[in-house]
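Milestone 3.1: sequence recovery, worked example.
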């Protein structure tokens, strides 16, 4: 990814406050220019370790601090990771992302399993990414050596809103990890969640942070909060589609070469809202019946809509 020109907070704010239809028009034009192939990239999540996480992220079903009821907790076997990757490939995904409910990666048999699975998934012809929490340069290098091409680490929101959502890890460390990912040469995937009670200023701050990485992000995932019963955010009201479209469009304009992944919250959207999101600049999604612990859109429903819209899967 190319080096990016620095962009000021004022510029982001000005853009964010444009009339929505003007934003959508500009974003759509840039989207077509930088991604003329009309593709939607399909990525499937594989949860290697689910739940029992000591962190207190207020949105998360996997934190052990809240009474969320998740089905399966713990590690799965390598052969299960590989079986899920085979299924993802058969259903059209070009990429899988291995997740673990860790604060940070620790060396040992679990990390070795991830490396070995990554190598084998790469041999299947799929791209492979990881989202494992904080990670060192040595561990990032090992991931690269074993075929991983990208690492996901979300900033989630603005620096000032962050402590309202998470107290057990901090924003500066998240940013340092992003730097480490880019220095090592892995593609960097970082984004956030909307609908956690943050203000427009928080959204602007987050976009400002993400658009000013040393190198452009490879992917900007946008999650719409999936309120999880038992967590502190269980009763958050749903956001309006217009808010999501504004984030996608500003993201597309600020980061024209970055893939924008419409991540959590898709299953709650109707076809018209999805179509507008793909028009505004989203060109990647998580595919398959499950995200990490929550329900996702059925692949056949996704394929039907892509077909109607003239989008090809990549
Ligand atoms: N444990 C690692 C970490 O925190 O970096 C990796 C996995 S974590 C589940 C990945 C991301 O999923 C979070 O940063 C958050 O953006 C998103 N996420 C988790 N739960 C969510 C929810 N209920 N609604 C929307 N997004 C969610
Ligand atoms: C990202 O930004 N969203 C994905 C992936 N990266 C790891 C996770 C979404 C999780 C949604 C809630 C759940 O299923 O528990
Ligand atoms: Fe743990 Fe990641 Fe969930 Fe936070 S977001 S509770 S670190 S799994």
């Amino acid at each position: 990814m190319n080096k990016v020109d620095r962009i000021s907070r004022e510029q982001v704010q000005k853009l964010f406050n444009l009339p929505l239809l003007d934003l959508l028009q500009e974003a759509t034009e840039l989207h077509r220019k930088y991604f003329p192939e009309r593709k939607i990239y399909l990525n499937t999540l594989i949860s290697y370790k689910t739940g029992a996480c000591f962190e207190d992220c207020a949105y998360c079903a996997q934190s052990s601090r809240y009474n969320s009821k998740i089905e399966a907790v713990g590690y799965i076997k390598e052969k299960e990771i590989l079986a899920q990757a085979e299924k993802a490939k058969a259903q059209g995904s070009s990429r899988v992302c291995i997740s673990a409910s860790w604060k940070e990666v620790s060396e040992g048999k679990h990390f070795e399993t991830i490396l070995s699975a990554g190598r084998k998934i790469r041999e299947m012809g799929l791209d492979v990414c990881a989202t494992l929490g904080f990670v060192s340069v040595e561990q990032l290098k090992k991931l690269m050596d074993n075929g991983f091409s990208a690492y996901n680490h979300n900033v989630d929101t603005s620096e000032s809103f962050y402590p309202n959502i998470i107290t057990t890890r901090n924003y500066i460390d998240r940013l340092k990890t992003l730097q480490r990912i880019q220095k090592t040469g892995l593609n960097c995937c970082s984004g956030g969640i909307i609908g956690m009670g943050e203000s427009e200023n928080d959204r602007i701050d987050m976009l400002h942070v993400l658009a000013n990485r040393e190198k452009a992000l490879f992917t900007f995932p946008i999650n719409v909060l999936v309120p999880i019963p038992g967590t502190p955010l269980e009763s958050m009201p749903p956001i309006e589609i217009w808010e999501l479209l504004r984030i996608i469009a500003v993201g597309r304009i600020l980061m024209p070469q970055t893939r924008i992944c419409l991540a959590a919250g898709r299953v709650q959207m109707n076809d018209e809202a999805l179509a507008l999101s793909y028009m505004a600049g989203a060109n990647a999604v998580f595919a398959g019946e499950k995200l990490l612990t929550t329900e996702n859109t059925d692949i056949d429903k996704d394929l039907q809509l892509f077909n109607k819209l003239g989008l090809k899967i990549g």
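The mean pLDDT is 95. The radius of gyration is 18 Å.
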